[in-house]
Amino acid sequence: MKKVDIRPHSLDTLHLTITGTGKYLEDLKPNETEVVPFQVITYGTANIYTTIKAHKNGTPLHGEFPEMTIKVKEEKAELENLFVLTYPYTQLEYTLEAEVTILGLRHSEGFILEFWVKTPKGAFEELARIQIKELSAGEQVRYTTEFTTKKIGSYTIHAYL
Questions:
Q1: Are residues 121 and 81 in the same domain?
Q2: Distances (CA, A) of 2 to 25, 35, 49, 53
Q3: Tens digit of pLDDT for each residue in 72-123?
Q4: Measured in whole angstroms, how far is the alpha carbon of residue 18 from the centre of its chain?
Q5: Are residues 28 and 52 in the same domain?
Q6: Which of 39, 45, 67, 146 has the fewest CB atoms within 10 Å, i.e. is most exposed?
Q7: CA end-to-end span of the chain, whole Å?
Q8: Same domain for 25 and 42
Q9: CA–CA gap between residue 154 and residue 151 (Å, rounded)
Q10: Measured distance CA(28)–CA(5) in Å, rounded
Q11: Three-state secondary-structure class, residue 137
Q12: Are 81 and 156 members of one domain?
């Protein structure tokens, strides 16, 4: 393979930052291996995946390696799902509901769930801040919030625990 471009990508830029841009290999011969270390800065458990772009016999190739979890401390809980209950194209002044599912990983008390929306103009607005009093290991809970579309464009919902 020639012109091999290997890059790491973070699925959680809040907790994990990748330093550097990956590695470029001009020529990787058959049965040859190359170790490509990546340096990351992490503040909590996060997911990372790797992409490879290359050329083999003049044909471009692209591949993604499955994500892996980098665990740096024992987490109390994790966000399992985030759904926005809506149609693909909604109307202005339409109220949408966002729902998150949280799984308790160990018995814990006193943490906060935050919902945020990125508006079409790129501004972030806090939708809700919910105090979670207690959660047992294996317990699954759901929380919801609502927001109303005010401008035409794309809205992105975020949930943080």
A1: yes
A2: 7, 16, 22, 9
A3: 777 788 889 999 877 777 788 888 899 999 999 888 888 899 999 999 998 8
A4: 14
A5: yes
A6: 39
A7: 43
A8: yes
A9: 9
A10: 11
A11: coil
A12: yes
Query: 58 and 81, same structural domain?
Result: no
pLDDT at 142 over 90: yes
**Which residue type, as a one-letter code, is found at position 116?**
W
On whether both 100 and 150 belong to a single domain, the answer is yes
- Amino acid, single-letter form, for residue 86: T
85 and 155: one domain? Answer: yes
- Residues 6 or more apart whose Cβ sits within 8 Å of residue 86: 94, 96, 97
Domain range spanning residue 110?
77-160
CA distance 119 to 124: 6
Tokens of 142: 């759901």
Quick one: 82 and 155 in the same domain?
Answer: yes
Rounded Cα distance, 17 and 22, in Å: 13
For residues 109 and 28, what is the distance between their CA atoms, to the nearest angstrom?
51
Q: Write out the H or E segment, with its range, that includes residue 68.
A: strand 59-70
Q: What's the sign of the alpha-carbon dihedral 61, 20, 67, 112?
A: negative
C-beta separation of 148 from 125 below 8 A: no
As a whole number of angstroms, the distance between CA 128 and CA 150 comes to 17
